[in-house]
Design a protein that fits this description.
single chain; about 300 residues; alpha+beta; 2 domains; five-stranded antiparallel beta sheet; 5 helices; globular
């Protein structure tokens, strides 16, 4: 099965369509963008990125899903580069305070985004969207939406200060979508979602009731859905768990365990704490001995006085 374009899941990246051979499904990254970066830098098994480098002045702003590359005048400005790991796809929004930057630097296609459905009239999906002059949120900042998949590459160096990081690079299927030009202003990289394709997952045959509840769960449990209803979501989830209990953790190889964010990490063996041996203080022994001698001497002296006084 060919993986769909990331833009195809703008309404709910959690929705899965069962392949005709009942093999394979998407799993959404359950952690934050920050956790994905940290896991990838550590080299955790199943992490979303490879060849990650974060340099210069950066900060997590608004949430741990939005990384700010800070433009500085007296020290190195922010920069980042990464490549999507095998089976991963993601959707990001880029923003910069350099007005019209992404629209001016777009070199492939003329796609623009004004909100609403991302799908074009011919039912195809883009790889990159840029905002009109007034920005997605009607201000002077410039915006772009980029959909990346396995092997695609993103790089941004705000002030072109790092030789191993491109000034601006969105490479999709080997095609560079922007001119390699430094933004020269603050840049924000916001993760909308990330997901991986699990080709080994085998779907079980479900009754029409279970399938209906599954579809309802995708509709009412996704916070980005206009039909999102936490109370109804809770009831649907409880009913679904009673009918068809689902596996809640990622299946990992021997020696690895799901870290709670859908990726496998190595199990670290706990070292047995060695019992501390009691250390005897020779000075204390010496003092105790002298005190004992003193007490014995006093007792003998008292006995001698008693004998003399008889």
């Amino acid at each position: 099965m060919e993986e769909p374009n990331p833009f195809q899941f703008q309404e709910s990246p959690y929705t899965n369509s069962k392949p005709s051979d009942n093999l394979g499904r998407f799993q959404v990254w359950k952690g934050t963008f920050k956790q994905a970066i940290e896991a990838s830098i550590r080299g955790d098994s199943g992490a979303p990125f490879v060849n990650v480098s974060v340099r210069g002045s950066t900060e997590w702003q608004r949430s741990d899903n939005q990384l700010k590359l800070v433009e500085e005048s007296k020290k190195d400005s922010g920069a980042i580069t990464f490549e999507l790991a095998p089976s991963w796809s993601c959707l990001f929004e880029l923003e910069t305070s350099n007005s019209d930057f992404f629209e001016d630097e777009l070199r492939v296609g003329e796609d623009s985004y004004t909100g609403g459905d991302l799908k074009s009239d011919d039912d195809t999906f883009p790889n990159v969207y840029v905002s009109p002059d007034d920005g997605t949120f009607k201000n002077s900042n410039s915006f772009a939406l980029i959909g990346l998949m396995e092997g695609d590459y993103f790089s941004c160096d705000v002030d072109a200060e790092f030789s191993n990081i491109a000034q601006l690079r969105v490479r999709i299927d080997g095609v560079d979508y922007f001119d390699n030009t430094k933004p020269n202003e603050n840049v924000w990289l916001d993760m909308i979602y990330m997901r991986t394709w699990d080709a080994n997952y085998e779907w079980v045959e479900e009754s029409s009731t279970v399938q209906g509840l599954t579809d309802a769960q995708a509709q009412f449990c996704d916070p980005t859905s206009p039909d999102y209803d936490p109370e109804l979501c809770r009831e649907i989830t409880e009913d679904l768990e009673k009918l068809s209990p689902q596996e809640t953790t990622t299946q990992c190889a021997d020696g690895f365990v799901d870290n709670g964010y859908g990726i496998c990490v190595r199990i670290e063996e706990e070292e047995e704490e060695e019992e501390e041996e009691e250390e005897f203080n020779l000075d204390d022994i010496e003092v105790s001995g002298m005190a004992m001698i003193g007490v014995l001497g006093l007792a003998v002296y008292i006995v001698i006085l008693a004998i003399k006084n008889r």
